[in-house]
Amino acid sequence: MDVNVKPEEKKPESLLHRLKTMAKKLKQNLMTIYLAYRDPRVSLFAKIFAVCVVAYAFSPVDLIPDFIPVLGYLDDVIIVPLGVYITLRLIPPEVLEEYRAAAEERRKLGKPINWFTGALIIGLWLCLAVAASMYLYKLFY
Questions:
Q1: How far apart are alpha carbons 90 and 84 in whole angstroms?
Q2: Residue range 22-37: average pLDDT?
């Protein structure tokens, strides 16, 4: 037994654990922003900015595609957290506190399943695929 180590000393958190904690906090802040932007106490500019940040964060389309080696993930690591930070500064603190509690409640309930929206998006993609196929067919035949 090592006599130099005190039992109450904790090991420093691993980098992976800190990154997971930061990602969880970012996700929670995004849900808070999503809930808060509809509140009438939030200014129009903050609402527009919040919608853009949340849409960009959840969008599969990035400013810089992820397949580009370093730069692909750099926009996700810098742009989204910076947008969240700015949006949180634009929304009044009392509104944030109210919706942080609501976001925490939603997190405890689990992920919502919206089959209608999912079916709508899949239908839209199918329509686009059919239209593109028809265009290509007419173009080459």
A1: 10
A2: 90
CA-CA distance, 104 to 28, in Å (whole number)? Answer: 7
Domain boundaries, the chain: 15-110, 114-141
Q: Which of 34, 63, 114 is nearest to 42 (CA)?
A: 34
Handedness of CA 52, 55, 56, 62 (dihedral sign): negative
Quickly tell me which residue has 């742009």 as its tokens. Answer: 79
Q: Name 19's Cβ contacts closer than 8 Å, sequence gap at least 6.
A: none
Tens of pLDDT, residue by residue over 2-12, are 555 555 555 66
Residue 33, classified by CB atoms within 10 Å of its CB into exposed (0-12), middle (13-18) or buried (19+), is buried
Instruction: Report how far residue 62's alpha carbon sits from residue 84's, in angstroms, rounded to the nearest whole number.
Output: 16
Q: Which of 37, 21, 19, 20 is nearest to 103 (CA)?
A: 37
Please, where are the H alpha helices in the chain? 15-36, 44-58, 71-90, 93-109, 115-140
Single-letter amino acid, residue 25:
K
The pTM of this model reads: 0.62
